[in-house]
Amino acid sequence: MIPFNLQLILIISNILLLIFLLNNIRKYKLELKYTLLWLGLILITFILSIFPSVLNFISSNIYIETPVNALFLIAFAVVFTILYRFTVIISNLTNQTKKLTQELGLLRNELNASLLKKGSKD
Amino acid sequence: MKILAIIPAYNEEGNIERLVNKLTQLDIDTLVINDCSTDSTVQICKNMRTNYIDLPVNLGIGGAVQTGYLYASRHNYDIAIQIDGDGQHDPAYIELLVDSIINHQADLVIGSRYIKKEGFQSSLMRRIGIKHFTYLIKMLTNKTVTDPTSGFRACNKKVINFFAAKYPVDYPEPETIVTLLRNNLVVKEIPVVMNERSNGISSINSIKAVYYMIKVSLAIIIDRLRNQDKEIAEHV
What we know:
heterodimer, A: mainly alpha, 4 helices, B: alpha/beta, Spore Coat Polysaccharide Biosynthesis Protein SpsA, Chain A, 7 strands, 43% helix, globular
């Protein structure tokens, strides 16, 4: 079992994080699409803090000495997932920005060319 | 009265020409938004000499449609119609959609296939999903919208300007309905008959379905938490 104090801290900080996230989505500061993973993290820790026996089950099955360490392991796994998603998203954004910049450069070039053409005609 | 038909298109080479031809017979302007298709959609638009925007980056349905609303807002259109590029929606109903807007019966009119329940009714799983959104919207706003995911819609200038400023990135339809209802705008449905998409595949597959349901449900609930009566005024 994990200590009751830790359980309490987990639950309270989870609720605070949930309110923080929802409020920021509400204010259009966060995009729900990219916040879903955080909400998933909250859901998982919430379940674990209410039913710590899941942690006991995990720790006894893969020979982790204390259930708290199993909690850390899961937390790491989830955080890694979020980080990986962010890497994917950043890569996409980088590609998109590059494409947009190139498109803009080409458009400028075309505009200049047609302006020059028009100028030489006049 | 300036009317624009916004046609979001992603890989619709098999459908777009027929649709645009039908639309040009009506007395309205058309705008195809090519969302970075990998097929010859843009080439067809070019050859047809139709009005189109070729997005350099794939934005998804929300971003593509919003581009149309931006265009409509900038060119001062009175009414914008959203019609899918996949041939599901019959342009013959556009007149009915537009009529309700002209007569000031509604700010947004949705073409619903579940009022008369005729024509293509979609698969059972999807109908369950759509019913879920109908109940959720009913619960949150006390209004019944039978076909909240319908992408066949018409709206007036007020809504055009609002959509030009704020529009959800993906799966936008149900969420925008809640946004409008929450801002005390009038949303009306009229019965239409839809076809099964003529060519190509739908953008939502079964793996995405669960994600879609969770995301849109959350989006609707969070939207209901937003302040009322403030946003529309800000953007008009």
